[in-house]
Amino acid sequence: MIDAPGTFRSARSAELRVSGYGEMRLCPVIRVLTGCDWGLVTADLSVAVRGPLRDSRSRPIVALDIGPMSWHRVPMEQDLRAATGDDLGAVVDIVRSAYAHYVSRIGREPGPMLDDYSGLIRQGRVHVIEHDGTVRGVLVLIPQEDAMLLDNVAVSPLAQGLGLGRKMLAFAERAAIDAGYRSIRLYTNEVMTENIELYTRIGYAETHRVEEKGLRRVYMTKRVGQPGELRRPPL
């Protein structure tokens, strides 16, 4: 069943409901094009139409007998990749430039400006995203016992408005799901009110506030990997 944008479940007999973004063509083979954090993916389904039918609320539906499903990845220009030692300079520069304007508001450098990115890269915790062949975004994910910690997401001021931050946030959620977590956690400084508002809009809920390393932090959590959501298909 395709019951939400980007969410797929296959079955021998299923109902097809089209909603949200995506493209559908009703023909002997249906090709679904959906955008996800790991790229654009098309799914080809062999179908036999049964209907027209109506659901329990008398809404029109199309019932299909679905045959084998094949997945094909559509390469995207903006893919995240694991950072390497060669990216260290760019990672540090992006973080410092992205957080510099908070120094006067906080009264000191915020936590991300003080982290050891050389060590984080060696541990495989850092991903980067490029635009026009240049690293423009940094994402730091740290697995914890009960949730994936989104430790840092930063976009170069030179690449604001390109959707890189949104793509990294989506990647973080998918990484949490793929690692078997049911929630993703992040924190931000109390004075970064615009960040708190953004995270609230995309589904994060505040859990607590605490002082750590001399910084007043707001912790927020979002549930991910709800029942029925498909994990990453084999590509």
Protein architecture, described:
- The protein is of the alpha+beta class.
- It has two domains: 2-74, no CATH class; 80-223, Gcn5-related N-acetyltransferase (GNAT) (Aminopeptidase, 3-Layer(aba) Sandwich), CATH 3.40.630.
- It has five helices and 13 strands.
- The chain has a seven-stranded mixed beta sheet with strand order 7-8-9-10-11-13-12. It has a four-stranded antiparallel beta sheet with strand order 3-6-5-4, with no helix packed on it.
- A hairpin with a 2-residue loop joins strand 8 and strand 9.
- Residues 1-43, 71-77 and 227-235 have low confidence and may be disordered.
Concise overview:
With 235 residues, the chain is α+β, with helices and mostly antiparallel strands. It is 20% helix and 42% strand. It is built from five helices and 13 strands.
List its salient traits.
disordered C terminus, Aminopeptidase, single chain, alpha+beta, 13 strands, four-stranded antiparallel beta sheet
Provide the gyration radius in Å: 21 Å
Structural class: alpha+beta
Low-confidence stretches: 1-43, 71-77, 227-235
Question: What are the secondary-structure elements, in order, as H or E?
Answer: EEEEEEEHHHEEEHEHEE
Query: Which bin fits the share of residues in helices?
Result: 10-25%
- Per the CATH scheme, the topology name of the largest domain is Aminopeptidase
Q: How many alpha or pi helices? A: 5
Globally, the shape reads: globular
Strand content: 35-45%
Largest sheet: 7 strands, mixed
What is the name of the CATH class of the largest domain? Alpha Beta
The CATH superfamily of the largest domain turns out to be Gcn5-related N-acetyltransferase (GNAT)
Mean pLDDT rating: 76
- Give the CATH architecture of the largest domain: 3-Layer(aba) Sandwich
Give the beta-strand count: 13
**Strands ordered across the widest β-sheet:** 7-8-9-10-11-13-12
Q: Tell me the domain tally.
A: 2
